[in-house]
Amino acid sequence: MEQSDSHNRRYVLAQRPKGEPDGDTLRLETAEIPVPAKGQMLLRNVFLSLDPYMRGRMSDAPSYAPPVELNEVMVGGTVAQVVSSDVEGFAEGDWVVAFGGWQDYALSDGTGVINMGRNPENPSWALGVLGMPGLTAWAGLTQIGQPKAGETLVVAGASGPVGATVGQIGKILGCRVVGIAGGAEKCRHVIDVLGFDDCIDYKADGFAQTLGAALPNGIDIYFENVGGAVFDAVLPLLNTNARIPVCGLISQYNATSLPDGPDRMGLLMGTILKKRMTMRGFIVFDDFGHLYPEFAKQMSGWVQDGRIKYREEMIDGLEQAPAAFVGLLKGEAFGKRVIRLAK
Amino acid sequence: MEQSDSHNRRYVLAQRPKGEPDGDTLRLETAEIPVPAKGQMLLRNVFLSLDPYMRGRMSDAPSYAPPVELNEVMVGGTVAQVVSSDVEGFAEGDWVVAFGGWQDYALSDGTGVINMGRNPENPSWALGVLGMPGLTAWAGLTQIGQPKAGETLVVAGASGPVGATVGQIGKILGCRVVGIAGGAEKCRHVIDVLGFDDCIDYKADGFAQTLGAALPNGIDIYFENVGGAVFDAVLPLLNTNARIPVCGLISQYNATSLPDGPDRMGLLMGTILKKRMTMRGFIVFDDFGHLYPEFAKQMSGWVQDGRIKYREEMIDGLEQAPAAFVGLLKGEAFGKRVIRLAK
After folding, report:
1. CATH, domain range B132-285
2. Which residue on chain B is closest to A253 by alpha carbon?
3. Disordered: where is this region (chains A, B) (predicted)?
4. Domain residue spans in chain B?
5. DSSP of B266-334, one letter per residue?
């Protein structure tokens, strides 16, 4: 079933998942195309971003953002075209970046929507390296990681849209950069295409030993996207005064209970104390949204100059979104996963 | 046995403790008074500071500072008088703050030694509110905690030399300050003398519930001195954007193994992420030593004005030091524990 101009396909949250989202989590509905009121515009979503944070919005556990309500449309960043507009600064045919959700059509009063004009190059990149994941990488690394030339930066999720960008910025800033990714193919990409100094496969036997051997000078900055066994291997390698931007913990988003003991919470705190480390969690728009203009200027320059490479994994069809999202949480994505809703 | 001018009593590290230090950990020796070489001075220790960090120096586990070697004198901050000096700026009779260790006499070339002159008021306070613990409190709170008026500050170890000072500075800066201390008498002191808004007894039944009830607006800054069950109660009360200076973890210094599970390391990291918290460990002279002059000026003003109160627990006799130190780790001290080596 393709996008049409006669109705609105949409995924609503049918049930809060216990553990991994499954066939009962989201429900595909066909509804009327919404009618914009005065001061609104109608957007036709062309690209839908899939991002790990969406797992959190499916749960009603306390978190930094309110959960999606049951039977409401699943949230998500989109690149869309304006169908009709009663919002100043937006006209029919404009390409925009919005928060249009898992559906074909969305209404907006323009709040938080960025107009990319009539003919943007690579409009979907606004969901990746030039958008939220790019800002996440840039701000988390520069503001919390505070890299200095000659330091060692380790990046989890190194082939993903955030990690790939973090590592490439680290190289530009003069760091030695070691990535961690899942599988030999991703690791080759991280080294050969993205230009990291090294990349360690966390799925390979002896991962912790291999990682340690690749880091004779320890770790000054660890950009955390993953948690779990990857962090277990990283923890003993952290240097005095290490900085750890905590951006994501994808390995534990589907967890339904705490892992077995011993309890290492005090061990982590003791390490933070003894190594005088800084660990800081952040949510990009809440903490660093004010830096967006500076980011956009610097990053678009780097992308144009070819200093920052970007890989997309484009998947056709809204109906592919639920399975693609589950795969994303399992580490199956290779590059920024985007759903194309319409040609 | 009292301090004499004929020999040097000294405690050396006889054996690294497993768990709590015991009678085999330190050995009291009688030795010659050391003879200063050219460019050195001889110090007679009058006051010896007891501090929780000393437990770490007894171990050879990796830490921020090298361990005390076996059969070497146990390290410690001291207030001393100069017996003889070949160091510029120091003359016989001067009072100094030094790192003279658990002994009657020490040599120094003047490095890191502060001259307090001939007749300082309350010379032993240089081991507390006007010295390392005071700087720890002041720098950890202002540099990492970054308190803003109206915020809620919670201080563990509230009757100790660091915690008491942290809370009083918090009040000066306009925070609501809630202390945590062990026992009703300490809590009364924290409220009535130190002027905290509230103080919760962690030894009382229902501690976690009482703490939660005392903090209807949650916690913006948690100054960590303790860890363990106190942190367990604090964790769910932390607000978005909370700052946690990790200054000490006294509850776990004697631990010989990790606690039973479940493993809450990922839970802590998830909380840091979701609440966008900052957790930072620090070692005061390494991280903030350069701020000492600013600290000394501000703190001595506050102490003179009576805005910062200070409680010492003076214990007579070097031979009391080992037991007094074990008690300190158990939370038995009430105020800054200092050993007086000589009248």
Report:
1. 3.40.50.720
2. B270
3. 1-25
4. 8-127+311-340, 132-285
5. HHHHHHHHHTT-EEEE--HHHHHGGGHHHHHHHHHHHHHTTSS---EEEEE-GGGHHHHHHHHHTT---
In sequence order, what E strands does A39-86 have? 41-49, 78-85
By DSSP bridging, strand A95-98 and strand A114-117 are antiparallel
Instruction: Indicate the Cα dihedral angle A131, A137, A138, A144, nearest 10°.
Output: 140
A–B CB contacts, 8 A cutoff, strictly below = 146
CA distance linking residue B143 with residue B157, whole number of Å:
19
Interchain pair A268, B272: CB under 8 A = no
How many Å separate Cα A70 from the centre of its chain? Answer: 24
Query: Is residue B265 over pLDDT 90?
Result: yes
Q: Which amino acid is it at B316?
A: D
Contact A266 B283 (CB under 8 A): no
Q: What DSSP element (H or E) covers A209? A: helix A207-214
Question: Cis peptide before B17, with omega less than 30 degrees from 0?
Answer: no
Q: Determine the CATH number of domain B8-127+311-340.
A: 3.90.180.10
* Site of tokens 């460019």: B39
pTM above threshold 0.90? yes
> Which ranges constitute the DSSP H helices of chain B?
53-58, 132-139, 161-172, 184-192, 207-214, 228-234, 265-274, 284-288, 292-304, 321-329
Q: Tell how strand B78-85 and strand B41-49 pair up.
A: antiparallel
Taking only the tens place, the pLDDT of each residue in B299-331 is 999 999 999 999 999 999 999 999 999 999 999
Chain A residues with CB inside 8 Å of B278's CB?
A: 278-281
Out of B264, B269, B275, closest to residue A249 by CB: B269
